[in-house]
Amino acid sequence: NSGGVQLTFGPRPRQVIREGAERCLVSPQGPMLLLQNPLGNTRIVSGSTEEIRWTSARASAVNIEYSTDKGQSWIAIAQDVPAITRRYLWQTPAENYSEVLVRIYDPLKPNVGDTSITTFSVQKPVIALKKPSGGEKIGFSEVLDISWTKDLVERVHVDYSPDAGKTWKRIVSGHNESLYRWNVADTVTDQGMIRIVSANDNTLISQSGVFSVNRPHAILISPNGGEKWQGNSTQKIQWVSDYVRRVVLEFSLDNGQTWRRVRLAPINADSGSFTWRLPDTTSGSAMVRILNDADRTQLVASSGAFSIIDSVMTSITNDAGGAIPVFGIERSSISTNGSRLTLAYSSSSSFTVKASIVSASGKSLPVNSIDEIREGAHTIDVELHNLSQGAYYLVLNGGMVTEYIYPFTIIR
Of the candidates 166, 162, 54, which has an alpha carbon nearest to the alpha carbon of residue 113? Predict the structure, then answer.
């Protein structure tokens, strides 16, 4: 052949090679069957077609059987298969078995045959969707990590339904990994679903529960304008949000002309607050804003400027020249039926306040029963009869001087 190398052997090597070849080509003296596949130590997909192969000599037919208990009992696959075909396509059982053997034998001479060297397994392919699982609130423009596990499945399709599975739209076809990052569709729904489908078997499916998709929104609760916070002190930035997974917090010292990060990394939006150490500077036009990490064009800015005052001042005065009181809630409790919130507080002085309850959606309800904070340690009761179950904030505001926000949850 072209490109080959011609080898020339002397008489003695030629004789040795010839004698060895003749010994290999000697036909067996009696009937013989040798199993070539499956030999064992492998995994086969249940319900699939597996090729059983063998070699034969002086045998006219083959019986084929399999065992699911390491050879203690045998189940017929085929009988009287012409030995000369040397192959048979076996439809494997549609169940899980861990210790399977295959054997072949001559039906006229059952002692002539062969068996798998060791056991193999027959297993059902598996797909299991991990995320989303259902119940999530996903905002427009968010990148959703769809993840799943799979076994004995090479490629999958990923589908999305906006109507609880009535219709499906293919997101990606023939994906061979176990993660897909999907840019969520900007369509409002409370019946969204994801499913994973085997590319080889469209009956092998794993799907999520329903989740909702909507426009992200957030409401900044504190600061909201008018506060006087001391430089280098720690203060809580607080907000409520919906359909937002992570937020970015920024602050400005020049009424929004320039912005800097409060924290470099995004923050879990569900936390609802972040403890911020203010810069050691002064400003009469400070602001805070929240950005949606999924889309930085979506933001909520503080409703007005607040002040950062000198951190080295020994006393802080309000606009009338009086000292700003030090106030704190020490403990709280909600009655078993969720109808009353009791707060224990301490204050360094007495001052008038306006109280309100803010819902997670940002709706504000006035609390007329609280109009004054008294000096010393006291308790106050807030009636909650008309409020439904959920998360709320009690906001105590002393005008331009004091604002205190206390989160609580009603469970009925």
Answer: 54
Q: Which amino acid is at 130?
A: K
DSSP assignments along 76-124, one per residue:
EEEEEEEGGG-EEEEE--SS-EEEEEEEEE-SSSTTSEEE-SS-EEEE-
In order of 135, 343, 372, 386, 389, the CA distances from 412 in angstroms are: 21, 19, 29, 12, 6
Distance CA 108, CA 30 (A): 13
DSSP annotation string for 221-262? EES-S--EEETT-EEEEEEEEES-SEEEEEEESSTTSS-EES
Nearest to 327 by CA among 370, 373, 368: 373
Whether the upstream peptide bond of residue 110 has omega within 30° of 0, thus cis, is: no
Structure tokens at 69: 């208990």
DSSP string over 255-298: TTSS-EESSSS-EEGGG-EEEEE--SS-EEEEEEEEEETTEEEE
Q: What is the pTM of this model?
A: 0.64
Alpha-carbon distance 304 to 285, whole Å? 8
Backbone angles phi, psi at 24, to 5 degrees: -70, -30
| % of the chain exceeding 90 in pLDDT | 56
Rg (CA), the chain: 38
Omega prior to 31 cis, within 30 of 0: no
Among residues 275, 253, 271, 255, the alpha carbon closest in space to that of 263 is found at: 275
pLDDT bin (cut points 50, 70, 90) of residue 390 is confident
